[in-house]
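**User:**
My hope is that you can spare some time for a protein that puzzles me. This is the protein in question:
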Amino acid sequence: MLVAKYPNWVAIVEHEGGRARFFDGAKDLFKYLFDVPKYGGSGKSAGVVRRWVTEFYGLTRIEARKALFVVGSDVLGPMGNELVPLASREEAEEFLADHKGRRILTFAEVSRDLVEKLDAGRFE
C-alpha cells in the first residue's frame, strides 16, 4: 500500500544510519516491530532508534512510545481495524467516548496477539 495516500495515518520506524520504513498505520508499525528480521532487519531491534505515529486529532508526528492507542473504535484506518494514536490521556478518553472505543493502551501494552486480532476483526 502506498502510504502517501493516507498521510493522516503514517507511522515511521527510523533505524541507525538514517534508514526509515514507512507504514500506513500504527498497526502495521507494530507488526514490523514484533518481527523486524522477517522484514530484512537483523536481531530483535535491528538498530531501531525511533518510532513515530501520526496522532489522530492534531495530525502531527509523535514518538510512538509516548502515544496512547485506542482499540476497538468505529474509526477504521487504511487497512481496517486500527490502533488509533492519541497524544494525551485526555484526548484518548475523549476519542474513546466519541468513537465507541473499547480500551486505551500504552505502547508497551500493545501485543502481537492484539494486532493479529485486529486484522481478524476482533478486539478481545
Q: What stands out?
A: The helical segments are 26-34, 89-98, 112-119. The mean pLDDT is 91.
